[in-house]
What does this fold into?
Amino acid sequence: MRLQSRWSFTLLLLCLIVFGLLIGVYKITNSPLLNQNGILRDYLDSNKPDNRPATRSILLWSSFFGDERWKLPVDTLGPQDFRDNLNCPVYQCELSNRHDYLPDLELYDAIVFHVAQPFPLLQPLPPRRSSQQAYVFALMEPPGETKHRLNDEQNFYNLTMSYRLDSDIVWPYSHLMDQETGARVAPSLQPYWRQPLALGSWNDSKVLQLWPKKTKMAAWFVSHCKTLSKREELAKALQQHIEVDIYGSCGSLSCARGDPHCDDMLDTDYKFYLAFENSLCVDYVTEKLYGALQHRIIPVVFGGANYTRFLPPHSYIDANRFENVEQLAMHLRYVANDLSEYMSYFWWRQYYKLGHDSPFCELCAQLHHPSFQHRTQIYEDIEAWWFNSCRLESHIRF
It folds into this structure.
């Protein structure tokens, strides 16, 4: 009896050892160190997505400066509009400004809030919020134009959609594309630019044709007269050294909005255009600059952006690269009096062109990305993220 007990104990011990060895072998052979591809294959096989293209729904909660459609053609866009009108690579989305487009607000995959305006008075916030929804902070204006108390909106937004290059959805006023490939080059944190052509190795026939009539120095169209950047003071200081014609409510000259002559004279009369921003904020580059790029005129930029992320080298003059306004004026006079030097600033037109994309294409793509439904993201302090991007002092003295 005692021998039988010993034998049973020994057999049990052997079974436990064998079982332990089998578990060890299984764990080793299925370890990520040896079998990561197998683990990935098993996961993908057991989590195959539905082959039917699911449509993601986006609601525009508030207007865009009074425009309920946010410059889109209709109140509600479907997948065909995303594909044919917006040219979105991922287009299985629908977007509406109608709060009752879906039977319940919780059914929208994303709700977009325009933060440059207060929440609508009659319906400031959705009464309920689904845990699967993305609340989108959307803004093209700088922090000084934000019309929300952001310290009341902590832990509220999941995604940001703005001009800043570190936004979840980058929303620039325009972008530059490679003419040969059609690829978008900038704005980008690290764009790859071709190098400018050697001075005198290239001629722009259009600039040559316009040159004899370009007898005026600089123009500026502006209506916002007192700004955080103090651009109005820089322009006034520059006027002490060179001719600067200021059009609009901030100057002595006028040009009616929509008058084609206002655009034409940038080509025919002036050598420089002042693309001065109202705020010195990271990545804040507006339509003032991109409008100038459509003409044969050199933009003189002033802002808080690193312009190498936006424009090819030797295609603009950055006021903040100079210590004082006297040095800036001296450089402008030099460029204005040398045809070859002036013309060299337009070399980029051979290789790049302006383009425009809708930010809703990228939002649609993100809502469809497999990782989106498994990722938890929220901006705990949206005020700090947004406000810390600006400064009050410029480099150039004036």
In short: Residues 175-353 form a domain with the Rossmann fold fold (CATH 3.40.50.11660). The first strand starts at residue 56 and ends at 60. The chain is about 30% helix and 15% strand.
